[in-house]
């Protein structure tokens, strides 16, 4: 039973991004229009080789609180720091979520995959603190704090609680990085005691990778620090059918940015751009998550999964399947 | 002299004797070599049974070696993961023999004891860790055409072990990358590819985020690549790499990585090829070599595996075959590998990790019976 005024259209910041980004965000716009969904987009052009995210873009996201984006291509090597990471840090989007699951009609080698990877998004190996001690010797700092570890663990258990999930697995390498990952584990264990109804266990990250590719059905919700989360999410997305179809997003206390879940290939190749053959499913499913976030569940439900084809064909198929 | 050795050289180059990769299951070596007198003298090898299923699988190796009457004898030493340091006599033994074979050492999680596995590698400067992941006929997997060698830097990177608590609740962990170590691991990778007739080396990195550290690693790889124009070289970001591994593993050949990514990539590759308990590997440095189960996951095993004696010895047996080649005993290595592959192909190695019930003794006996 909606409250009066709930149907008022919401503004959402839209960042097409680089590579296949504009193609897939274009697909989302088309589908939203076809559904007459109560959202309208404020589009901004951001490219991975800009030095920082433009101030007007940040203001827009702060105002709208919700953003949908394509991939931003980060140059490899020295120079520009990643805009994806910048966005997450500025808005303190401390949790990155990727939902990897077998979709009907997508052939995979692994069955029974239903994994949610929740990854700490602001610290760890991505602190960006590196320096060259002497020529030819570089130190890179990995920072782990109790504060960030606790809040990501809390988010993971809360997610499991709200979504009727049975188990949370912490991924770590505390046998080698005893203090850093040890602190992460301690925080997870503390939070676990507050959720007695949810099972909690721990797994070392190398064993985790192997278990993911041999018995993925044993995993439910996984909570990880930054780097392992990146790798585990991409592996899980790969076994479930590919990162082109897995939804996800980044969320913080005040804001949320939805994008293709796992980061591999979210900018795509030139061939994909030239032939218009990018896969919009991941972003479409993420936009469904966004609709739920905005409290429009029935619109979210109406979005369905099409099979493969060119971007336009897929979009048309989705639109056709909407009713 | 050159004219006489040219045809021999040509033959060798055409069908190189690979050090690490096993020959096809059915072919017999057609070119025998002429040993020097005294080559058959038994060599001493340090043996560390280790923890958990370690003693079971190393015992399997001892049994098979004895059955083959291989010219090796083992100097056994007890080392456990919860010791503070590797005992000095063990280090001396390895330094003397130059070759060691070991089971897994269980490293306690959390503060306190530092990993003995890592200690061994650092003390002996075993800077390259090698895992060979390939589809074994008879081993059911979801992925075909897997033939990947993961070469991982073994001494620095995230495993520098330099951590400290800045203030309570804030920890810094240092990841150290140096040009020296990056260059030598890249050199080892290309040399390996060259000697084993491999076509491509892929560097795995995350230099879009860790620009200086992984940037330095990449630079070193690129420099070394120019010295091997016959071998293709490319680079892949580690998250994309993980996804490609599980969707199209056939694109990878030799992979060179820093320490942490190498650990994860090796275990993932081992997993898709059939499981870490089948894949051989070892750690090698300028002077010494330690052979063990390739990828580290599960090399200590669970209590159930130990009690019911159902550990899988294939990884360590294949690693001991690598060791025999390293010691210049190729025909023994060939016999061992063929026997192991025959047993796996005939499905007589259905240990617990394959969902079966065989005990390790049954598997070893099958392998011994398959030796000619």
TrEMBL record, chain A:
Gene3D superfamilies: Isopropylmalate Dehydrogenase. GO terms for biological process: isocitrate metabolic process; tricarboxylic acid cycle. Keywords: Magnesium, Manganese, Metal-binding, Mitochondrion, NAD, Oxidoreductase, Transit peptide, Tricarboxylic acid cycle. SMART domains: Iso_dh. Residues 11-318 form the Isopropylmalate dehydrogenase-like domain. The keyword Oxidoreductase applies. It is found in: Mitochondrion. GO terms for molecular function: isocitrate dehydrogenase (NAD+) activity; metal ion binding. Coiled coil: none annotated. It holds the Pfam family Iso_dh. GO terms for cellular component: mitochondrion. The keyword Magnesium applies. PANTHER family: DECARBOXYLATING DEHYDROGENASES-ISOCITRATE, ISOPROPYLMALATE, TARTRATE, ISOCITRATE DEHYDROGENASE [NAD] SUBUNIT BETA, MITOCHONDRIAL. Belongs to the isocitrate and isopropylmalate dehydrogenases family. Performs an essential role in the oxidative function of the citric acid cycle. This is Isopropylmalate dehydrogenase-like domain-containing protein. It comes from Spirodela intermedia.
Automatic annotation (TrEMBL), chain B:
One of its GO terms (cellular component) is mitochondrion. One of its GO terms (molecular function) is metal ion binding. Pfam families: Iso_dh. It is found in: Mitochondrion. Keywords: Magnesium, Manganese, Metal-binding, Mitochondrion, NAD, Oxidoreductase, Transit peptide, Tricarboxylic acid cycle. InterPro entries: Isocitrate_DH_NAD (IPR004434), IsoPropMal-DH-like_dom (IPR024084). It comes from the Eukaryota. Signal peptide: none annotated. Its main location: mitochondrion. Residues 1-41 are annotated as: Disordered. Residues 44-367 form the Isopropylmalate dehydrogenase-like domain. One of its GO terms (biological process) is isocitrate metabolic process. Residues 1-15 have a biased composition (Low complexity). PANTHER family: DECARBOXYLATING DEHYDROGENASES-ISOCITRATE, ISOPROPYLMALATE, TARTRATE, ISOCITRATE DEHYDROGENASE [NAD] SUBUNIT BETA, MITOCHONDRIAL. Performs an essential role in the oxidative function of the citric acid cycle. Belongs to the isocitrate and isopropylmalate dehydrogenases family. This is Isopropylmalate dehydrogenase-like domain-containing protein.
């Amino acid at each position: 039973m909606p409250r009066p005024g709930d149907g008022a259209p919401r503004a959402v910041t839209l960042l097409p991004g680089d590579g296949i980004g504009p193609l897939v965000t274009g697909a989302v716009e088309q589908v939203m229009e076809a559904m007459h969904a109560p959202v309208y987009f404020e589009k901004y052009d951001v490219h991975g080789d800009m030095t920082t995210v433009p101030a007007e873009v940040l203001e827009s996201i702060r105002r709208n609180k919700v953003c949908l984006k394509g991939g931003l291509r980060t140059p490899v090597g020295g120079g520009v720091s990643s805009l994806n990471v910048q966005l997450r840090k500025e808005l303190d989007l401390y949790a990155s979520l990727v939902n990897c699951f077998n979709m009907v009609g997508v052939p995979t080698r692994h069955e029974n995959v239903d994994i949610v990877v929740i990854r700490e998004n602001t610290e760890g190996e991505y602190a960006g603190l590196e320096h060259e001690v002497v020529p030819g010797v570089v130190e890179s700092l990995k920072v782990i704090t109790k504060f960030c570890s606790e809040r990501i663990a809390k988010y993971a258990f809360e997610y499991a609680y709200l979504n009727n999930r049975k188990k949370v697995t912490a991924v770590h390498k505390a046998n080698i990085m005893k203090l850093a990952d040890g602190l992460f584990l301690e925080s997870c264990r503390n939070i676990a005691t507050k959720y007695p109804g949810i099972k909690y266990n721990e797994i070392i990250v190398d064993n985790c990778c192997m278990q993911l590719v041999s018995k993925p059905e044993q995993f439910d919700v996984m909570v990880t620090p930054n780097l392992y989360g990146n790798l585990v999410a991409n592996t899980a997305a790969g076994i479930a059918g590919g990162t082109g179809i897995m939804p996800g997003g980044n969320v913080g206390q005040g804001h949320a940015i939805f994008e293709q879940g796992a980061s591999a290939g979210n900018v795509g190749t030139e061939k994909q751009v030239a032939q218009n053959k990018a896969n919009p499913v991941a972003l479409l499913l993420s936009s469904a998550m966004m609709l739920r976030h905005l409290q429009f569940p029935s619109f979210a439900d109406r979005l369905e999964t099409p099979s493969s084809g060119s971007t336009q064909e897929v979009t048309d198929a989705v639109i056709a399947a909407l009713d």
